[in-house]
Amino acid sequence: MKFDMGSTTLSELGKATDGSSNDLGTLIKLLVAAADPLEGKFNGPGKVAFDSFKRRSDGITAELNASLQAILGGQSGMDTAFTAGNHEQHDNAHQNMGSANFDAARFGAR
With a threshold of 0.70, does the pTM exceed it? Predict the structure, then answer.
């Protein structure tokens, strides 16, 4: 199995997730606005559920956005770790190449 990821993959994923967070909040507000014409049309348990949804919509939006922000934090941490690992691998390779004795290597029979 081969794992190949570009150096900007996680930062691009973070930007996409951040955009999704904004989109999600907008979609929930649109859902609540679309439900406005239904207000007052329910009785009994239906009315209780509808009113509860309307009351809790801001909280639901906040909880979903907080969850997405936590995902963004994780993606950012992974991006930092991968970037640091990439730089460390580069530095180690150059350090090892500097101490290698390429002149002593035999590339053909004498």
Answer: no
Give the mean pLDDT per block of 10 residues along the chain (110 residues): 68 76 80 87 90 86 85 86 87 84 66
On whether the CB atoms of residues 13 and 89 are closer than 8 A, the answer is: no
- What residue type is 30 in one-letter code? L
Structural domains in the chain plus CATH codes: 10-98 (1.10.287)
Kindly report each contact of residues 84-88 with a partner whose C-beta sits within 8 Å and lies 24 or more positions away, as own/partner.
86/7
Contacts of 80 (CB under 8 A, 6+ apart): none
Q: Are 21 and 72 in contact (CB under 8 A)?
A: yes
